[in-house]
């Protein structure tokens, strides 16, 4: 993955995918919940935000399409480690 390019209003990946403030907010919560790198369950993210699991699932799918999150075994999600 290429290093992100900074713009004035949003983060733009080299492959032209846009990273919004909502994406960043989710990524920060995922990082907080995955302190031991064993993966994050969507129900834990839903509890953290107070959102429905279906909303969390939708955003996690978006993050997977952006190659920021991957889905592992046993329904756990993992953050890709990206150096900026």
Q: What's the story with the biggest beta sheet?
A: 3 strands, antiparallel
CATH fold annotation: Arc Repressor Mutant, subunit A
**Strand arrangement in the largest pleated sheet:** 1-2-3
Which word captures the global form?
A: globular
- Mean pLDDT over all positions: 79
Going by helix content, strand content and strand pairing, the class is alpha+beta
Taking pLDDT < 50 over at least 5 consecutive residues as the criterion, the unreliable ranges are 1-9
Q: What is the CATH H-level superfamily?
A: Winged helix-like DNA-binding domain superfamily/Winged helix DNA-binding domain
Number of domains: 1
Description:
- The chain is an alpha+beta fold and 84 residues long.
- The protein has one domain: Winged helix-like DNA-binding domain superfamily/Winged helix DNA-binding domain (Arc Repressor Mutant, subunit A, Orthogonal Bundle).
- It is 40% helix and 14% strand.
- A 3-stranded antiparallel sheet has the order 1-2-3.
- Strand 4 and strand 5 (77-79) form a beta hairpin.
- The longest helix has 13 residues, at 21-33.
- The radius of gyration is 13 Å and the shape is globular.
- The model is unreliable at 1-9 (pLDDT under 50).
